[in-house]
Amino acid sequence: MDARGGILHVEDDPSLQKLVRVALEQLGGYTVCTAASGAEALALAGRFAPRLLLLDLDLPDMSGIATLRALRALPGLAEVPAVLLTAARDPGVQAELTSLGVREILHKPFRPRLLVQAVNRVLAGGGQ
After folding, report:
1. How far is CA 18 from CA 27, 30, 35, 90, in A?
2. pTM of the model as a whole
3. In whole angstroms, what is the distance from residue 117 CA to residue 99 CA?
4. Average pLDDT of 117-122?
5. CATH for 7-123?
């Protein structure tokens, strides 16, 4: 399977990994590569060459912000749009997330169709 150009999803909860994969693949027609941690995302990113980064803020090994910063430092990923899918609701991090290229923040729990719509918007050049 050639997964180049899909969505790199970084989430440690297996049930959310599955829900996001099903929504994006079946409803959106996207290819999804899932990583359960920041370290795994960094290892996969070079081979996967994602078109979009979809991250949780609360990861087991490093925060979603630290993971996004590290991904941005990899060749070819500095300008890849990002979407956050998180249970956190800290408005204090909004400016930092925007500076890191986060175009949408979706809060858990979420509706699968709204996730697909947000991804479509971001990949079309839009976002919040």
Report:
1. 13, 14, 12, 26
2. 0.90
3. 22
4. 95
5. 3.40.50.2300
